[in-house]
């Protein structure tokens, strides 16, 4: 479904991504692991059209995404839940969800909003509440729900567990699995390596703009280097 080939991305003269290549197959959950500054967010921002690569290619369902503006990337079936949620703080829950469907003009928007409320019952209870007054966990639910309103085939998730209590982390990851079972392919960027590897089929380890390790989720979870660097084992 997604093929990334020899991707080089720069911030000015800073070489952030140094020729990375990876793939995400239809129906998979694939995780991208790495420490702060490794290039994970840069990767997702490039896939969603917010950054332009200097070299390399990004192909989605066989067509290149390079040079395509972000709103057209959404139209092609890719949505991005950014790090830090980035909800519209002054809008209500419903208005945020409506913004997620801004590329659509069909009659099924209300039906899809009800599906979001089924997935996240807390949002239904707070549908008229100003989004900036929600808890951190509720804001993360809203960010994911807003992305789902565009009916993505590929969902890019950037650090969905950041800043959340452990019980909410478990809830968010259970929801990610539910979304995947509903037919949405997921590329998950996450520092909580243990949780990410517990739900993913495959994974890649990103270090300072390169991908030195890749493999099945169980293989990576058993890798001594991964266990030491990302799972907190000595």
Descriptive overview:
The chain has 234 residues and is α/β, with parallel strands linked by helices. The protein has two domains: 1-77 and 153-234, Rossmann fold, CATH 3.40.50.300; 87-151, no CATH class. It has helices spanning 40-47, 70-76, 93-100, 109-119, 121-125, 136-148, 166-181, 193-199, 217-222, 224-230, and strands at 2-11, 14-24, 29-33, 55-60, 63-64, 78-81, 154-158, 185-189, 202-207, 210-216. Helix 3 packs parallel to helix 6 (136-148).
Keywords:
single chain; 234 residues; alpha/beta; Rossmann fold; 2 domains; 6-stranded mixed β-sheet; 4-stranded antiparallel β-sheet; 10 helices; 38% helix
The biggest sheet amounts to: 6 strands, mixed
The parts where pLDDT drops under 50 for at least 5 residues are none
Q: In the CATH hierarchy, what is the class of the largest domain?
A: Alpha Beta
Strand fraction band? Answer: 25-35%
Strand order of the largest sheet: 6-7-8-3-9-10
Number of domains: 2
Number of helices: 10
| Molecular shape | globular
